[in-house]
Amino acid sequence: QVHLVESGGGLAQAGDSLRLSCIASGRTFSRFAMGWFRQAPGSEREFVASIDWSGRSAYYRESVRGRFTISRDNANNTLYLQMNSLLREDSAVYYCAAESRPYGLGRRTVDFGFYGQGTQVTVSS
Question: What pLDDT does residue 1 have?
Fold first, then answer.
C-alpha cells in the first residue's frame, strides 16, 4: 500500500517562496516516477511537475516552468517542490503523486495511480 504525505503548504504573498515536501512509504521509492498536481476551487486537478525514477529528468507545465523546481531524495523517500515567485493563480491544493509502474518517466497523467491527501497553498496579492 503506497502512502504519500504532503507538507509545507500555507499562506504566502505574491512573489514569495514555499517548499512542499512529500514523504512516501509502502514500496521502493527510488523505482517510481513522482509528480505534483494541484486543484483550485471549481477547477479540475491539473499536472504541475514530474520527475522520473532516477531524478535525472523533470517535466513542468508551462505556467510554472522557471519558477518551480521538482526534486527527489531517494535515500529519504522524499519528493520536493520548490515554488518561487508565487502568483495568486498558484493558489490550490497541491497533491503528491506516484506512478503505478516502476521505472517510468512521469510524462502521462494516466500513469499516476497514487495520490496523497494534499496540502493547501494560498497566495495573496
Answer: 85
